Amino acid sequence: MEDNAVDEELNRLIQDVVDAAKLTPKARLTDIKPTVARLNSAAYERGVLPDALDKLIDLITRPNHLDQGSLNALIRNLYPATKVSRHVVIRVVACLGQGRFKASLNIQAALVRWLILVYRTLETPQVLSQSYHVLFSLLDTAATRPQLAHLLALITRRKHVKPFRIQALLDLARKAGNDPSLIGLLRVYKDYYPEVIVGEAVRGRASAFKHPDTSWRGHLNEVQDAHLHRLVDTATVTRDGFRVNKPLGRVRSDKAIPAVHTSLAGENSVTLEEVETAKGLADSLEKLELPNQLVAVLADPLLQKLLLLRPHDEAHQRIVYWLQAALQEVMHGAADEASLWELLEVVRDFVTQTKAIPPILLNFFAQFFPVWGGTGRVDVLLDILAFTPLQEFKELYKHLFGPLETALGTHHPELQHSLVDLYTQILRHWKSLLLSSEAIPKHAKKTIQALVSHMNTISSIMLQASPTVTTSSQVLDFYEEFAHMVTHSSLRSHLRIEMPPSPVIYSLFFSGSLADTSRLCHVLSCFKQGFETAIMERARSDDPTQSGPYDRAYLNTYNGYLMDICNCLWRTRAFSSTEANAHGCLLPSPTVDALSAYLMRVNRNFGLESICGLSLAPTLCLQSIQRFRELEDAELDRGRLLATRHAGPVTQASLAKLATSGGLSMGWQDYRVSVLNSLSDKGLPGIADLLKCTMTVLKNLMDGKTGERSTSLQRSSQ
């Protein structure tokens, strides 16, 4: 049975028991004991997940109609599959004591015993320390005293041993006739204050506080080991960043890397194994001893933090030597393929944590990719390469990306999409490096420009080979990241805008996804902002005669893209090439004529020049008519009667006709502005942003101002 099905079955059994516990035995239609038995069997076999544990603890600690035998059986089989949360511990402590709505003393004793059994798996053991005064105050109840004394002995520290508690414990021991559990707790207290608690007070038979059930604890280890195996198989296991990464039982998914073990600690030093919290790491940072095998840093988050906070050249060199030896074994055939991927999986975790690739690993990839057959865990390699350092792109492509593309393209053509994601991740990483650098490297401009140019080629090929929404969305991810870089105040003066090729722009603009069209318009509007900023900075420079970063032909090409998009969306001049800079969306004149003739045969009411506008474009027509109907509904809500409603699509002529026939009266400009605002409200602001930044008259119209129209950029050298 699948894991999900088993968990669902366990939850169903728990719900059946919970529902039955609300009814008296006579009111139940069926006997609940077989269901309890099946529930106990399932909990014994697989353990109880956190949500299921919460439900069972609520059932046991609250008043219900289950018999004591069933409740005790549930507690005996309460094997948590993961760590026990503080909320569970608090609810158990809260149910202790005397009271009408408290659990029976027999159940309370069983619950305290359960806390002792799971003490080593508590998520936050400090919660019991915080509840110390509550637990101590319950020692006068004889039925739960042995278990409470044992639990208190586990959690007692010097701060808990107070004079008033010593006196209370001595008095209670005398009244109880030297109860062994109380004498045992007194001996724990005596270890902290032997000068206060004299020998006479702790004489007599005392509880040794042995583990209540070692076989139960052993089975708990097996249950949690099995659950951890399932997590490893589904890649959902997480690690505690402030504790040494110790596997439960014998489970270890990264056997190639040694575990953290420190054997050379002195009296005044602290080992990593003793650290359990962020405060513990901070307090003992200068006293921490390095472990025997420093290469454990690859798999241990706590050791990674130590070496980042307290750099050590010798430690770094030892790690490099170990990695070099391990990778050389792979290259010389001394290690099998499984060992390689096991090692790289661990390195992947280390790289994603530290955001840096060890240089020795890059050298290995430079030797490995040319001879690699393209098989194995490709995702691991791509995850590591996402953190490629900011170096000359020409060299990176020669030694890394070129051989990688060859291997993937030859053996895995479907992984071309993964390459686009890889270059997007690399660009994002480089952006983070540049923003965190005190000085921008001189080669950064050419390096990023080369990456974008290479991505332009890949985008053109992919959009032709696989013209899907998935492809266009991945391509836009890259260009959006680049657009944010060239408009960032700290980076824009160090980068040059490298525009996508014309086929890429028009393929994205005429995509079947409105989201893609909006995202492309957003990218182009960011480019316009970057161009304008560069021109203004050039004009304010000390040497205005020096040519700017963009020549006139380059700007005219970009202006042509803006002109074509505005002609399609706003000016009802789609595919026109008669205006200055307009490209006509690269459609040849014979093609435009043929499309116009075809459209006239299909419907004489619409011309080719208006077919890509807000009302008629395939990706916009639904949004436009919905917006107009919303406006009509708003008129009706205000109490105005409309003799007729627009059937759609909305055109300038249909609006005039609608107004004269008793429908909604609205101007053509107001309607289109309303559609743009509606798109922005729905999370698609790109179209409105581009049209506003391109046409001043529209910006003023939307902002309620008047002004002149401006559609193009000026030459940067002017």
From TrEMBL:
PANTHER family: CENTROMERE PROTEIN I. Pfam families: CENP-I (PF07778). CDD domains: CTF3_NTD_HEAT. One of its GO terms (cellular component) is nucleus. GO terms for biological process: CENP-A containing chromatin assembly; mitotic sister chromatid segregation. Belongs to the CENP-I/CTF3 family. This is Mis6-domain-containing protein. Keywords: Centromere, Chromosome, Nucleus. It is found in: Chromosome, Centromere; Nucleus.
